[in-house]
Amino acid sequence: QVQLVESGGGLAQAGGSLRLSCAASGRTFSSLAMGWFRQAPGKEREFVAAITRIGIRTYYADSVKGRFAISRDNAKNDVYLQMNSLKPEDTALYYCAAARTYSDAYYSTARQYDYWGQGTQVTVSS
């Protein structure tokens, strides 16, 4: 079993930045591909960013490409989402997710992930 705990959400102004963190425990972190998803009120959960288990490759939704950056520190069992140039449409509950894998793959659909955190709220004001 893997436990994921997100932190770093909050209120930001449009154009500002936030950095989300996700702490993982319960399994060798380097055997987990990681991702971030978000869900706005009344909308479906959507993919934001993903990173391979060693952190060599990353993948982003078009809506955040060039503004958000995912990274990980396998020594600390943490994954991060640096969010810059925030927009009001980035307002959502952000979830960290983990997928068991021994391949060098990243995953962009929710059903590919095995574990989920509880989420951290990000609110961007205009």
Could you explain the architecture of this structure?
The chain has strands spanning 3-7, 10-13, 18-25, 32-39, 46-51, 58-60, 68-73, 78-83, 92-100, 115-116, 120-125. The protein is mainly β and 126 residues long. Strands 2, 4, 5, 6, 9, 10 and 11 form a seven-stranded mixed β-sheet that branches. A four-stranded antiparallel β-sheet has the order 1-3-8-7, with no helix packed on it. A hairpin with a 6-residue loop joins strand 4 and strand 5. The radius of gyration is 13 Å and the shape is globular. The N and C termini lie far apart (40 Å). The model has no long low-confidence stretch (mean pLDDT 96).
Secondary-structure map with pairings?
Layout: E1 3-7, E2 10-13, E3 18-25, E4 32-39, E5 46-51, E6 58-60, E7 68-73, E8 78-83, E9 92-100, E10 115-116, E11 120-125
Parallel strand pairs: 2-11
Antiparallel strand pairs: 1-3, 3-8, 4-5, 4-9, 5-6, 7-8, 9-10, 9-11
Entry summary:
This protein is mostly beta strands and 126 residues long.
Overall SS class: mainly beta
In terms of per-residue confidence, which ranges show pLDDT below 50 for 5 or more consecutive residues? none
Beginning-to-end CA distance, first to last residue: 40 Å
Tell me, what's the shape?
A: globular
Please name the defining characteristics of this protein:
mainly beta, 126 residues, 11 strands, 4-stranded antiparallel β-sheet, 7-stranded mixed β-sheet
